[in-house]
Design brief:
Number of helices: 12
């Protein structure tokens, strides 16, 4: 089995790369260790109304306009149920002493700053595209056994004994990437000593398509709009508080989140049980090696406070797809000059977002009085300088 490109990992970023290459003329394989998402049949408008009763996914993403355009090009975005997507028309950020910073779609001259989409829905839409893609071989659920590199090709052996050869291996297999390990690209992740606690709530008051974020001495709380009077919470807290939030009753959790958000949306009612995941940052010395390119969480991790993790991953996939589609007379997708170009194009964006999120996390999770005064003064000052706000938002819109 010979392929131009083998993508290992069929999550959002890996699937989006495969979909972006459907008109490339390249022979592709996608290897995923988990079963494919369960795909529901196409639904009528009445069925979609009924489906509003389906439990909301507690893991959601703020998809930037640039990422939305990327997904539209592959055909995945049109397969999403618009009734379960919420636009973010403005974002209100609060410091821990009353300072405020507001971003608005109106100021940026765009329809919305982002769209809030459920993880499950996006996975299903991308896999619908993949299952009809003529130049793609889907191998799932299959686990990888070994990966060997030679001057002219890479050889992947699956646990069932099948052997696949390719010019380029793309590692899209997440934070604990097996591909990254096989390629010898190593770095120890930085443990933020925080967990992201997620849950969904119905709200007493309308959110008006506003995303809220509160920087607090003991954590960072965000409430993201969902359709109707619903919000999705991401609360970055220390391990002890995370464990406590998962143990308390739904009523206690609702009361605590309402107080922490200053009753901005009134009383809350829990609609999905809370879950938690550890927060890390991974900075790699490089994101490519001979015949290997890394994308998504295999290439970087960052704090979720800016909601940019998945968007940075989509930008990886978008850039790599562009390079492979625009490779000219170069027939070898794993050629060193193509991989160097990919590395060079992505380095600044990745490091900028990692540096920004790392700096903000440590700046606000700090009790030094002088720092507290400076950070809140900076937040308020930034809010008054519209050109500066536009510059800060421009990258996040890509």
């Amino acid at each position: 089995m010979n392929f131009d490109v083998i993508i290992i990992g069929g999550g959002l970023v890996g699937a989006s790369l495969a979909a972006a290459l459907k008109q490339s003329g390249l022979s592709l394989a996608l290897v995923e260790s988990q079963p494919a998402p369960v795909l529901t049949e196409h639904q009528t408008s009445d069925q979609k109304k009924i489906d509003q009763k389906v439990e909301w996914d507690s893991r959601v993403y703020a998809i930037s306009p640039g990422s939305r355009h990327f997904l539209e090009q592959s055909g995945a975005w049109s397969l999403l149920d618009a009734a379960r997507i919420a636009p973010v028309e403005s974002m209100q950020v609060y410091g821990d002493t009353g300072a405020e910073l507001e971003f608005s779609a109106y100021q940026m001259c765009v329809a919305e700053l982002a769209c809030i989409v459920e993880n499950r829905a996006l996975q299903q839409a991308l896999w619908r595209v993949l299952q009809t893609q003529e130049n793609l071989t889907l191998l799932h659920p299959h686990r990888c056994a070994s990966l060997q590199f030679a001057a002219d090709a890479a050889t992947l052996t699956l646990e069932d004994g099948r052997t696949l050869k390719t010019n380029l291996v793309v590692g899209a297999d997440g934070r604990d990437s097996w591909v990254r390990e096989q390629a010898g690209i190593n770095a120890a992740p930085l443990d933020f000593q925080q967990y992201g606690v997620v849950a969904n709530f119905s709200t007493e008051l309308p959110h008006r398509d506003i995303a809220y974020q509160w920087f607090q001495p003991d954590g960072i709380l965000a409430l993201l709009p969902l359709p109707g009077n619903r919000v999705s919470m991401v609360w970055a807290v220390n391990p002890e508080m995370s464990a406590r939030l998962l143990k308390i009753t739904p009523e206690e959790l609702c009361a605590e989140v309402a107080i922490a958000s200053f009753k901005t949306l009134g009383n809350l009612q829990l609609i999905t049980p809370p879950a938690a995941f550890p927060l890390h940052m991974l900075i790699l010395p490089k994101i490519s090696a001979p015949r290997v390119a890394l994308i998504g969480d295999a290439a970087h991790n960052m704090h979720p406070l800016a909601g940019q993790g998945v968007n940075v991953g989509f930008r990886d996939a978008r850039q790599l797809a562009h390079i492979l589609l625009d490779r000219g007379a170069q027939s070898n997708c794993g050629a060193a000059q193509l991989l160097h170009r990919y590395e060079r194009k992505r380095k600044e964006d990745i490091y900028t977002m990692q540096t920004m999120t790392y700096g903000l996390k440590h700046l606000f999770n700090n009790d030094i009085p002088l720092l507290r005064a400076m950070r809140n003064f900076g937040l308020g000052a930034t809010n008054r300088i519209v050109p500066l706000k536009k510059m800060l938002m421009q990258r996040a819109l890509n």
